[in-house]
Amino acid sequence: MTSLVSAKEVGKRYVTVTGETIEAIRNVSLELHEGEVLAIVGPSGCGKSTLLRLMSGVEAPSEGSIERRQDNGFIVGFIFQDASLMRWRTVYDNIKLPLEVLGKEDNLKKIDELIQMVNLTGFERAYPIELSGGMQRRTAIARALVHEPNVLLMDEPLTGIDEITKEILETELSYIIRKLKVTAVLVTHDIGEAVFLGDRVLVMSARPGTVIYEVKVSLPSPREPAVRAQQQFADCCMAIRDRLNLLHPLRTREASNFDKTEIR
Amino acid sequence: MRVSRHRVFAELKNRASAVSVFIAVVLLWQFVSANNIIPQFLLPPPSSVVAEFFRPGVDWPLHILTTLKEIIVGFFLGTLGGLALAVMVTESAFLRKTLLPYLIGIEALPKIAIAPLIYILLGFNDLARILMVILLVFFPIVLTTLTGLVDLDRNLVYLMKTLGAGEMMILYKVRLPNSMPQLFVGLRLGALGAIIGSVIAEFVSSNAGLGFLIINAQSTFKTSLAFAAFMILGVSSLALYGSIELAAFLAMPWFRKK
């Protein structure tokens, strides 16, 4: 299987505005295979987003190395946590942005195709402020795919929207990723979302984040909402919860002098 | 561009209430002055003020054009200079560190106090008066635009970088459009500054202009002439401010939908 991204013993340290050095991730090694969806799950602040940014190539690691397959250029599509649309551009023009930057404006048909695929037909001339949270995410998804990237990087793309819209978007995203045969990396702190969308799930520890566990998800793709009721889905989620110490959090607290009288 | 009937009606209603207030104030003013509640040499009635425009001896077109020229040229150059410096400071960390503290320091100074210095440096001429206007336009433009150029969604810059965009493209596609609301705030402040600057400059030294008329009216106790000049200045301010509002309305359809 061809690797699109190969990270070896990667570490990243930041210097904060107060001059403090923060070690975000430590000794992370991973392979991103062509055509797969790799989900990375972990607690808040464990360096998931840092890892994603290192994979994109815009930031360099402090230690270790990251190799990217460069045959036809390594083109990235990025979806951010809060959509991050340009408020001065319409839906159509927001989606068009990557084509303008890459000088591929002869491929405008792709915009209409994606608008249809993400169910935004009729909203092409709307501004982000006129859209619901879900519609803004759909626009961001279309923008990330319009230039046919090698890798789709998603940084908690469905955080902050209501549960109903989120489930609908998870299903749509799964369908779009499979239909377009995109290699993708999803960073999330939502275990269910990671298992629903991922072919493999990497579990990261708290900061400095490192990969502590890997789960292979063998459910059929694209995934239907009913997959959440399957035993394998539940098993994957439980295995991840176990590794993140979420099944017996009180037992852990007990071990660290937790006073039992508090829960009586 | 489609504007709903409801919105047009609401806008007319707003304008109508502003006009009604104006008419009420003028009527009250006429009553107070005509009945000598306040002596006419202190508060001339509106009818005397309007009569000033038809009195021979005052070359109104010359005075109006002199002041308008200072305002428009100063406003244009101040805006252009302010924008250019804001962009340079945004793009250069060195300039940001070295110039920004001075910009903020100079902005805090009462620029009216600089007027005599400008005349000493440049002489008593049009250039000095226009420079005074430029000073009052330049700083609000620099500081407001700079905020818009720098204070943005970092993800957008990141997105552009992942697509291989350089600093110039980021400036053109992200920073400049993002700064437009702040730029228009600066333009509004600059417009008011331009009018104040031209009048102050003419107060200090001039032989024509509306500020010149006001200062002469003061020394000869022609209050109605001063009020007539105020009126022209007021209309000019409204026209300039209105033009900026219209430009903002047309340039930022996304902003008016807020």
Key traits:
heterodimer; A: 264 residues; alpha/beta; six-stranded mixed beta sheet; three-stranded antiparallel beta sheet; 8 helices; disordered C terminus; B: 258 residues; mainly alpha; MetI-like fold; 2 domains; 11 helices; 80% helix; 0% strand
Describe the structure.
- The complex is a heterodimer of chains A (264) and B (258).
- Chain A is an alpha/beta fold.
- Chain A has eight helices and nine strands.
- A six-stranded mixed beta sheet of chain A has the order 5-6-7-3-8-9, sandwiched between helices. A three-stranded antiparallel beta sheet of chain A has the order 2-1-4, covered by helices on one side.
- Chain A is globular.
- Chain B is built from eleven helices and no strands.
- The relative contact order of chain B is 0.12.
- By secondary structure, chain B is an all-alpha fold.
- Helix content of chain B is 80%, strand content 0%.
- Chain B starts with a helix and ends with a helix.
What is this entry, summarized?
By secondary structure, chain A is α/β, with parallel strands linked by helices. Chain A is built from eight helices and nine strands.
List the helices and strands and how they pair.
The complex is a heterodimer of chains A (264) and B (258).
Chain A: E1 3-15, E2 21-33, E3 37-41, H1 48-56, E4 63-68, E5 76-79, H2 91-102, H3 109-117, H4 133-145, E6 151-155, H5 163-180, E7 183-188, H6 191-197, E8 200-204, E9 211-216, H7 231-243, H8 249-255
Parallel strand pairs in A: 3-7, 3-8, 5-6, 6-7
Antiparallel strand pairs in A: 1-2, 1-4, 8-9
Helix pairs in contact in A: 2-4, 3-4, 6-7
Chain B: H1 5-34, H2 46-51, H3 60-91, H4 93-108, H5 115-122, H6 126-150, H7 154-162, H8 167-204, H9 210-219, H10 223-251, H11 253-256
Helix pairs in contact in B: 3-4, 3-6, 3-8, 3-9, 5-6, 6-8, 8-9, 8-10, 9-10
